[in-house]
Design a protein that fits this description.
Blueprint (H helix, E strand, L loop, with lengths): L6 E4 L8 H15 L6 H10 L1 H8 L6 H13 L8 H10 L3 E5 L6 H7 L6 E5 L12 H10 L4 E5 L2 H9 L3 E4 L6 H4 L3
Parallel strand pairs: 1-2, 1-4, 2-3, 4-5
Length: 189
């Protein structure tokens, strides 16, 4: 049986890159410096909502916390962590003759993350915020890829509703990914 889709359009943070795991650890470690304890999984859930949400929940009334957390997080994210199965899956797609694309709200610095995790070579094109397209949920960046590469049979994978909304608006099948299952088990290639 062949591949279900020919082309895959990925989101990065929270989809291929487990940045919430990295950020949660940095958040909990920073809290400890400020003399507070918190459960890492609860922090993870709050951070997925927003940094603001996590601060209101766990770091209320701690002056200087945000700055300290951001500094620690920046340091932690320089050793990025992929979700389990991400690299083998990207590799399998390319080996089977498929293509991977990346659409991210981050800027060109994302290349460093892709290099650090060893997955840069698996992408046909990486679309960053520097391209100037409207942010997701606008389908603009997806329509650009659709046009440029004549995509007809593509799957969009992201961890937030905006990814799915943008993908569907561009006429692609879309999947919400929450990180519970290793990626290479979730998608059959």
């Amino acid at each position: 049986m062949g591949m279900q889709y020919q082309d895959y359009i990925w989101d990065l943070g929270g989809t291929l890159l487990d940045n919430y795991e990295t950020s949660s650890r940095a958040f909990v470690e920073t809290l400890a410096e400020f003399g507070r304890k918190a459960d890492k999984s609860a922090v993870y859930v709050a951070l997925k909502q927003s940094t603001q949400e996590a601060i209101e929940t766990f770091a209320q009334g701690l002056p200087g916390f945000l700055e300290a957390y951001k500094a620690r997080e920046k340091d932690a994210l320089s050793h990025p962590q992929l979700f389990e199965g991400a690299k083998p899956l990207l590799e399998k797609i390319v080996a089977a003759g498929g293509r991977n694309f990346l659409v991210t709200h981050r800027n060109h610095n994302v290349t460093e993350v892709l290099e650090a995790t060893g997955i840069r070579s698996y992408f046909t094109e990486v679309v960053t915020s520097d391209a100037g397209f409207a942010r997701k949920p606008s389908p603009e960046s997806f329509l650009y890829l659709k046009e440029k590469y004549q995509l007809s049979d593509a799957l969009v994978i992201g961890d937030r509703l905006i990814d799915v909304t943008a993908g569907r608006a561009a006429g692609f099948a879309s999947m919400l990914y929450h990180g519970q299952v290793p990626l290479d088990r979730l998608i059959e290639v």
